[in-house]
Design a protein that fits this description.
Length: 236
C-alpha cells in the first residue's frame, strides 16, 4: 500500500495572514485542497493522511475533506511543534502494512501526478538495483551561484552543478523512514527535511528531476507566482 502524508500544520507567519497559509485560497479553493487533489487523483496512491494545526482540524475535515469529497483521506492528525514532529505523529498512525510513504508539503500545490508517480517508480526500480537506496525525492538543479558564508564574508563558491534544491514529495519505504524518525526523535535530531534522516542512517536517497515551478508557498510573492503558474497551466 502506498500512503501519502500531506503536512499542513504550519502557521504561515511569513505570509502575514491571520489564516494558516495552507487554508488560503487560490482561485476560490484552499491551497491544501489543490494539493490533496493531486494525490487523490493518482491511481498509485491508496490512502492520504493529513497533519493540521489543532485549531484547524474540524475546519480541515469540513471545509476541505468533505467539501471536495476526498475519499482517500483516511485521517486528519494534529501536528507537532515542528514539521518533523508532525510527520512522526502521522507515521505513528498509519498502518504498519504500508509499503511506501510519500511525504509532501501541503503548500506545494503545483506538483503533478506524473512527478508523484515517478518517485514511486524510481524508488522501486533503484532499490532493486541497489538495496541501499531507501528514498527518492523530487529536486531541481540550482540556477544561481551558491556561496558558502562565514558571517558577512564569502568563504567559498560551491560548484553549482553539485547543488540541487530539495522539493517534495519525498518518497521512502515505510519501515526505513519510520526507523529513521524514531532514532532522530530519541537522539533529539531535527533535520531540515525527511531525506536528511535517511541520509544520517547511512542509506542512499536518489533524485527525480523536478520543475522549478513546484514551489513551496511561504511568502506573498510565492502566492502570486503560484496563481500565475496555475493560470498558465489551466489549473484553476
Amino acid at each position: 500500500m502506498n500512503v501519502a502524508i500531506i503536512t499542513a500544520a504550519g502557521k504561515g507567519t511569513r505570509l502575514k495572514s491571520n489564516i494558516s497559509k495552507q487554508f488560503l485560497n487560490i482561485y476560490n479553493k484552499p491551497i491544501l485542497a489543490h494539493t490533496i487533489s493531486i494525490f487523490e487523483n493518482s491511481s498509485k496512491i491508496d490512502a492520504i493522511y493529513v497533519s493540521a494545526p489543532r485549531d484547524y482540524i474540524e475546519s480541515c475535515r469540513k471545509d476541505i475533506i468533505r467539501k471536495y469529497r476526498f475519499t482517500k483521506v483516511s485521517k486528519v492528525i494534529v501536528g507537532g511543534s515542528h514539521r518533523q514532529a508532525s510527520v512522526f505523529n502521522v507515521l505513528s498512525n498509519i498502518p504498519s502494512s504500508t509499503d511506501i510513504v510519500l511525504i509532501h508539503d501541503g503548500v506545494r500545490p503545483l506538483v503533478t501526478s506524473g512527478e508523484v508517480e515517478a518517485t514511486i517508480k524510481k524508488l522501486k526500480n533503484d532499490n532493486k538495483k541497489d538495496p541501499e537506496v531507501k528514498g527518492v525525492i523530487l529536486a531541481a538543479p540550482a540556477r544561481e551561484t551558491i556561496k558558502k558564508m562565514s558571517g558577512n564574508t564569502i568563504d567559498s563558491t560551491i560548484p553549482r552543478d553539485t547543488v540541487w534544491h530539495a522539493q517534495t514529495p519525498q518518497t521512502f519505504f515505510y519501515r526505513e523512514i519510520m526507523e529513521a524518525h524514531k532514532i532522530a526523535f530519541n537522539e533529539g535530531f531535527i533535520g531540515t527535511d525527511d531525506s536528511s534522516l535517511i541520509e544520517r542512517m547511512g542509506w542512499k536517497v536518489n533524485v527525480v528531476r523536478g520543475r522549478h515551478e513546484n514551489i513551496k508557498i511561504t511568502t506573498p510573492v510565492d502566492l502570486f507566482l503560484a496563481e500565475l503558474f496555475m493560470n498558465k497551466n489551466g489549473k484553476p
